[in-house]
Design brief:
With 544 residues, the protein is α+β, with helices and mostly antiparallel strands. The protein folds into three domains: 1-233, tricorn interacting facor f3 domain (Immunoglobulin-like, Sandwich); 343-472, Orthogonal Bundle (Neutral Protease, domain 2), CATH 1.10.390; 478-543, Sandwich (Immunoglobulin-like). Helices cover 22% and strands 35% of the residues. It has nine helices and 32 strands. The strands form ten sheets. It has an eight-stranded mixed beta sheet. A four-stranded mixed beta sheet has the order 18-19-20-21, covered by helices on one side. The protein has a four-stranded mixed beta sheet with strand order 30-27-26-32, with no helix packed on it. β3 (48-60) and β4 (65-76) form a beta hairpin. α2 packs across α3 (327-334), α3 (327-334) packs antiparallel against α4 (350-383) and α4 packs across α6 (407-423).
């Protein structure tokens, strides 16, 4: 998603005894427009390896409030006097225990500083935090993070969370940095009024009804990104099916659709099954075969929440090759491979997730509508490139810095198209699948731009670093000149040359693929040749 602006909220609250009363607090700052995720990792958090979260909350739709506790299990690589977690200042902590012993703490600047009577030892620490309050409200979800408290057409509460931009700290204490995920998964236990249903990640373990409330116990054993640790609530009906993967594993499909929209459920599921086959063809087996293929209907554009992607397009489809297609439904599902399975180590490398997920849309066009449909969407991606700033800005940058340019989607996709041309299909597609399936790049491991470059360089036998650097770390485009040097003689030269590249050169009704070296090439033609007429590169051409 492209971050357009941040949330601005104004008001005052006091959390007292886990919401036993609410009174205004003088000076309480409700503005979180500054908030973003990632950036330079705090040294206090660099020594923390998050292993597991258990989130236990009661949701009050009328008060738009949450209360409960979170247990954070982590390993310390060395002793420390202070444990540091992130939590938005609007949610107030009442009590903290570390390894069952009460400890002192301070909340400041959306952080929780935890100190004990003695230093915390190297090894496992279990932190229990009791807290609550009124979480930020999303103004324009999913781009502006927070809770959406709305109602469906029949007046039932409909509650949605989005927190990619600002991180999971918008509603639970956590280590908010993309370089660390809970390797042993997450348990999410959510209590709501008994007429509502909670959709969450992983598998539903049980539902307990007590005193007009229901508690839904969700569990995932997979690693999961911080911003995917969340849930959605509504008057949902669960429509079920199953999918047999490319490796012959049977995976349940669960669509959490509003009761008023159940007539649309079957088509959404059928589309999901077809799209699964397309994605598996190029990227390997569906990543979460031990859990589910999940979809939750929400009132805002969708998100890639692991095993429970969200979806909203008013059930409208476009025709591609005579088949129904939803870009929202497909793109978020592609993220199950590119974001959730293959995860960037830092927001600096988000083009990998967003760019390849966007390129996956082009591959879907190829499958549904053939080369013409593929070329049409690729050209659309090319035309939308703004080149206001480089896609890779360095290391340890924030989500806002990376997203604000927007090119990580379409320029990222077009870069993959260019790379495909440079190294050829017989190398490109197997290597792309290797990136999506090799344990070195998936699940517990993270990737960077350098990892991707080195993988493709090794597979192609070419040093592709100059190509990656030019397109990803600058806003330059290829600068070519076609210069008449004699009778029917033309020199084709790359003025900002960085490596030998293949080009289609069209002249006298023929097209040849030629390598243009540093000094250029000279061709013989009756009229000035055309270079890269089909547009495999971002470029400008001048005829002299």
């Amino acid at each position: 998603m492209i971050l357009l602006h941040k949330i601005k909220l104004y008001g005052l609250i006091l959390f007292c005894g886990l919401l036993l009363c609410q009174l205004p607090v003088a000076g309480q700052n409700r503005d979180i427009s500054y908030m973003t995720s990632g950036g330079k990792l705090n040294p206090l958090q660099a020594i923390m390896d998050i292993r597991h979260y258990t989130i236990t909350l009661t949701i009050d739709p009328e008060q738009q409030a949450i209360k409960g506790n979170v247990v954070v299990t982590l390993n310390l690589s060395k002793p420390t006097d202070t444990l540091l977690l992130d939590l938005v200042h609007l949610l107030l902590v009442e009590k903290i225990k570390v390894n069952n012993s009460p400890v002192a703490f301070t909340q400041k600047d959306d952080k929780i500083y935890i100190t004990g009577k003695t230093a915390f030892k190297q090894g496992q620490q279990k932190i229990q935090i009791i807290y609550g309050g009124m979480p930020p409200v999303a103004i324009r979800p999913p781009w502006d993070g927070g809770f959406t408290w709305t109602k469906d057409i029949n007046g039932n509460p409909w509650i949605v969370i989005n927190c990619q931009a600002e991180g999971g700290k918008l509603y639970f204490p956590c280590k908010d940095h993309p370089s660390d995920e809970p390797n042993e998964g997450v348990d999410i236990n959510i209590t709501v009024p008994a007429n509502l249903v909670v959709a969450g990640p992983g598998l539903l373990q049980k539902v307990i009804t007590k005193k007009g409330m229901k508690t839904f116990y969700w569990k995932t054993n997979y690693t999961i990104s911080n911003y995917c640790v969340l849930f959605n609530i509504g008057k949902y009906k669960v429509v079920r099916d199953s999918y047999t993967t490319i490796n012959n594993n049977k995976v349940p499909i669960e669509y959490y659709v509003l009761e008023v929209d159940t007539a649309h459920a079957r088509k959404v599921i059928e589309t999901r099954i077809r799209d699964s086959k397309i994605l598996e063809k190029y990227f390997g087996e569906y990543p979460w075969v031990k859990e589910k293929i999940g979809i939750a209907e929400v009132p805002n554009p969708g998100m890639e929440h692991q095993t429970m992607i969200t979806f909203q397009n008013k059930f409208e489809y476009q025709k591609i090759g005579g088949q129904d297609y939803s870009a929202n439904l497909f793109h978020e599902f592609a993220h199950e491979w590119w974001a959730n399975k293959v995860t960037n180590k830092d927001w600096a490398h988000m083009w990998i997730q967003e760019g390849i997920a966007t390129y996956a849309e082009a591959l879907c066009m190829l499958e549904l509508g053939g080369e013409d449909a593929y070329n049409e969407i690729i050209n659309r991606h090319k035309r939308s490139v703004k080149n206001k700033k480089a896609m890779v800005l360095g290391e340890e940058v924030t989500e806002e810095e990376t997203y604000s340019g927007g090119d990580i989607y379409t320029k990222g996709s077009f870069f993959m198209h260019s790379l495909r041309y440079v190294i050829s299909d017989d190398i490109f597609f197997p290597t792309l699948k290797k990136l999506a399936t090799d344990p070195a790049y998936t699940y517990d491991n993270f990737v960077t731009t350098t990892d991707v470059e080195q993988l493709f360089s090794k597979a192609s036998g070419k040093n592709l670093k100059p190509f990656f650097d030019f397109y990803l770390r600058t806003t330059d485009v290829l600068d070519l000149t076609i210069k008449e040097t004699g009778y029917h003689k033309y020199q084709i030269k790359i003025n900002n040359y960085f490596m030998d590249l293949p080009f289609e050169v069209s002249m006298d009704n023929t097209t040849q693929k030629m390598i243009i070296p540093k000094d250029g090439i000279t061709v013989t033609a009756n009229t000035p040749p055309m270079v890269d007429a089909r547009g495999y590169y971002l470029k400008k051409v001048m005829i002299q």
